[in-house]
Amino acid sequence: MSTTPRQIRITLLGVGILLVAGIVATAAFFSFSSTTSFCTSCHEMNVHKEELAQSPHAKDYDESAIDCADCHLPRGLGPRYLSVKTYLGVKDVFVHFTESPDSIDRRHSQPVARRFVDDASCQACHDDLYKDAKKEKDISEIGKLAHDNYNGKDGKSYRLCVDCHTNMAHLPSFDRRLDINQEFAAKLVAAEQLVAAEEQGGAQ
Amino acid sequence: MITISLTKKNMLLGACGLFILAVVGIGLFFLYLNFAFPVKHATGTHLAVPDQYTDCVTCHTKVSAQVTQDWREAKHGVTLVKCVVCHGEPDGKGSIPFMATPDPKLICSRCHDPAVVRMEAKYGNSADCYSCHAYHQNPVHSNAYETRVPTTQTTLDQPGQGF
Known about the structure:
heterodimer, A: mainly alpha, B: 1% strand
């Protein structure tokens, strides 16, 4: 059997159509699978959502809820986004079906998560590093020194935003004792007690 | 005019080609991932510490909360062995050079010489104390000891195994 140029052209056309359809389908799947509700469709991710709701990052400046993807996926649709999406997506699904949720050690997840939180994602909201979080007052003296270090104006930091700013959205129990997390921890404990009380009330 | 004949041999070659392409693709993917999201970042330089922050702790409570709290709650913090005693002054002007990982021979033996000598006799010579002792956390009752199992080992060939 041998193929003529005409057959090759038809094959190429077919492959082309398939490719375009594939890309469109992938894009649709990627955008759908980046929503917070998709993330929390796995029960492993629920605790993170509950913690997020009590964190300083529960609501954006315009009072809308902040999505997981705002921090955990690089902005734009470039190679950074695609590679993180593919890598963590495949890994999450694989671990979801192969390991029990109890075996996930949050101490080990933290560095993995930090590695893939882009500085650009933080800066999309915090555009001026010399203003405080509410964008009203100037930043504190220590903050100015640290951010000068980050910007390379005073020494050079090798750190990313999340290496200095830990526990911005989640607070595993082992981090609750830290002084800087007291406010967040108190809110979280109060919320948990409320849930526990409601559950007890429902059982009676 | 090109004609490709779909013989068994050609199909096999094509399959092999596709397989190699896939392997190379996956390899390139991880290469890119490690390049775009490095596990370890380049080394930095410490900022110049203004006079009002000579105690280091005020600032480090914010920039490395975990380390600082561990230090404060552990023996070195309680007995006020300050950051500079182990790490040196960030501008390098102190009596010891600035080190992110203090050199045990230079630093620890200043205060712990008897313990170091005794421990070397007991477990053999060890280049670093850090595989056994966590320095900011309660040094002896740290995580490393939570999983401690009894051992008959008397050398340090496999650090972390026995302790």
